[in-house]
């Protein structure tokens, strides 16, 4: 019994010892965990301090760099300001020198001119010295080609090839424009003669050559040639257009009706209408408006253009033009924007017809072909005869573009100046046609202008009945042709 009791005591004591050891191990682990947490906290605080220190350093660096940049910028601005002041002083000094030089030259030229005038009474041959001094500020350029063309014995055929008209027509234009474009001589230079001014413009329009080539031909500066072309074209529009390109008077209208009826059998036709496109360089504004989709698709090259709508008489002389609307506009929209449409709305075209292509709508005053499929014999016959009237306008535009080659390619003329140039070409075309100036066969131009049927092709029911009546009369009175058969 005693042994059993002792053994129990020993076991209890051993268990107590074990529990005491376990408790000591737990305390030690807690201490280690607290130490690790404390170490992590210290590391985290250290990292925060390092980050704050790095941010402070970065801010200091940024402030230093910004301050340095401001200092350099201020120094550069100060230097540039000083340089500008210095340059302004130099430029002002040079300007004063040039003014003094000009004054001295003018005084010298005037003295020489006075001396030459005084000596001319005794020595007539000394006038050339004054002329030489008067051209002191003109660059010496060769104008041998123009001097040769301007000689009376220059071949007429060569003159016409160069300027697209005979010498007599050229002289007529010079005479009519003289009061508008003639300039007076100055002390320092002689004015460019009227004939040379007109020749520069006509050569440029006829050949479409770049201004640098025109400059070499006529012995003038490039900017001078450009200025001359615009001045002469503006004078043509102001002086000659009211005389050579106007809607005909009543007496002339009756004659036009008779001529068109003799051609086609269609009564009361006063004009043949067509719209063509003139290529241009892509404009800086409203590019999409001038983009020509049909020409681009055909030529596989991006094309931009402006439109020229014209009405002609049986001889191919323009009686009305509308110039400058963007190339993206179809023919019917160009017609609606024209002064011709306004004239018709005011009742001035009542009871007469202007014949157009299928690109125009059928209206009370616009007569166009039948465009539907499966045409009757009567409609075929009408289209055949109306096509003969359309040819008058197409042939006129073919001669216009063939005679003035500048209309066939993109030009250096600015977009805002193009209507003046194109209007001058139409006036010159009329003068040549009225004076029977024939165009060389190799110069004839083949028109390539697509015709799109407008969305609303019929604008008047009464005009449809009138067209049917005309077609019926043509066929049943033996006036229609038979080529449609």
Give the helix/strand layout:
Elements: H1 2-120, H2 127-134, H3 144-149, H4 156-163, H5 167-181, H6 194-207, H7 211-218, H8 222-244, H9 250-264, E1 269-280, H10 287-290, H11 293-299, E2 304-312, E3 318-326, H12 331-337, H13 339-345, E4 353-355, E5 366-367, H14 377-403, H15 418-434, H16 461-476
Helix pairs in contact: 1-2, 5-6, 5-8, 6-8, 7-8, 8-15, 14-16
What does this structure look like?
With 485 residues, the chain is α/β, with parallel strands linked by helices. Among the domains are: 144-243, no CATH class; 247-476, no CATH class. It is 62% helix and 7% strand. It has 16 helices and 5 strands. The protein has helices at residues 2-120, 127-134, 144-149, 156-163, 167-181, 194-207, 211-218, 222-244, 250-264, 287-290, 293-299, 331-337, 339-345, 377-403, 418-434, 461-476, and strands spanning 269-280, 304-312, 318-326, 353-355, 366-367. Strands 3-2-1-4-5 form a 5-stranded mixed β-sheet, with helices on both faces. A hairpin with a 5-residue loop joins strand 2 (304-312) and strand 3. Helix 6 crosses helix 8. The radius of gyration is 45 Å and the shape is flat. The termini are far apart. Mean pLDDT is 83; it is low at 116-136. Belongs to the HARBI1 family. Its main location: nucleus.
Count of helical regions:
16
Order of helices and strands: HHHHHHHHHEHHEEHHEEHHH
Radius of gyration: 45 Å
Low-confidence stretches: 116-136
Q: What percent of residues adopt helix (DSSP H or I)?
A: 55-70%
- Strand arrangement in the largest pleated sheet: 3-2-1-4-5
Strand tally: 5
Overall geometric form: flat
Question: In percent terms, what proportion of residues is strand?
Answer: 5-15%
The first-to-last residue Cα distance is: 149 Å
Average of per-residue pLDDT values: 83
Write down the oligomeric state.
single chain
Biggest β-sheet, characterized?
Answer: 5 strands, mixed
Structural class: alpha/beta
Subcellular location: Nucleus
Domain DDE Tnp4: 274-430
Biased composition (Basic and acidic residues): 51-64
Keywords: Hydrolase, Metal-binding, Nuclease, Nucleus
């Amino acid at each position: 019994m005693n042994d059993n009791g002792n053994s129990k005591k020993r076991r209890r004591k051993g268990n107590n010892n074990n529990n005491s050891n376990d408790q000591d191990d737990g305390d030690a682990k807690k201490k280690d965990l607290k130490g690790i947490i404390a170490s992590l906290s210290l590391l985290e605080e250290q990292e925060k301090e390092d980050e704050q220190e790095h941010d402070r350093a970065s801010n200091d660096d940024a402030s230093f760099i910004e301050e340095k940049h401001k200092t350099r910028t201020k120094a550069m601005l100060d230097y540039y300001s000083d340089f500008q002041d210095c340059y302004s002083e130099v430029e002002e000094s040079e300007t004063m020198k040039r003014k003094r030089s000009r004054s001295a030259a003018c005084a010298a030229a005037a003295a020489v001119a006075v001396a030459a005038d005084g000596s001319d009474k005794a020595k007539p041959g000394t006038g050339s010295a004054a002329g030489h001094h008067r051209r002191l500020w003109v660059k010496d350029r060769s104008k041998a080609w123009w001097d040769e063309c301007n000689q009376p014995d220059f071949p007429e055929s060569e003159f016409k090839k160069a300027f697209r008209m005979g010498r007599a027509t050229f002289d007529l234009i010079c005479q009519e424009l003289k009061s508008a474009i003639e300039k007076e001589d100055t002390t320092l230079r002689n004015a460019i003669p009227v004939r040379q001014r007109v020749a520069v413009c006509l050569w440029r329009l006829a050949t479409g050559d770049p201004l640098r080539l025109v400059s070499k031909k006529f012995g003038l500066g490039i900017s001078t040639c450009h200025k001359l072309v615009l001045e002469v074209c503006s004078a043509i529009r102001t002086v000659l257009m009211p005389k050579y390109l106007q809607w005909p008077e009543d007496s002339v209208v009756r004659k036009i009706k008779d001529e068109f009826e003799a051609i086609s059998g269609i009564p009361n036709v006063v004009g043949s209408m067509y719209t063509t496109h003139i290529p241009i360089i892509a404009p800086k504004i409203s590019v999409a408006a001038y983009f020509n989709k049909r020409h681009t698709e055909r030529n596989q090259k991006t094309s931009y253009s402006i439109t020229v709508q014209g009405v002609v008489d049986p001889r191919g002389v323009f009686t009305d033009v509308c110039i400058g609307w963007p190339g993206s506009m179809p023919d019917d929209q160009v017609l609606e924007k024209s002064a011709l449409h306004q004239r018709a709305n005011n009742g001035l075209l009542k009871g007469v017809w202007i014949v157009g292509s299928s690109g125009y709508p059928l209206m009370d005053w616009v007569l166009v072909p039948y465009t539907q499929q499966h045409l009757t014999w009567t409609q075929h016959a009408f289209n055949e005869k109306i096509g003969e009237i359309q040819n008058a306008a197409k042939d006129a535009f073919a001669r216009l573009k063939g005679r003035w080659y500048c209309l066939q390619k993109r030009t250096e003329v600015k977009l805002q100046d193009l209507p003046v140039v194109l209007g001058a070409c139409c006036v010159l075309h009329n003068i040549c046609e009225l004076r029977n100036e024939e165009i060389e066969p190799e110069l004839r131009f083949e028109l390539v202008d697509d015709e799109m049927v407008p969305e609303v092709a019929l604008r008047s029911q009464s005009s449809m009945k009138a067209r049917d009546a005309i077609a019926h009369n043509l066929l049943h009175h033996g006036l229609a042709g038979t080529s449609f058969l």
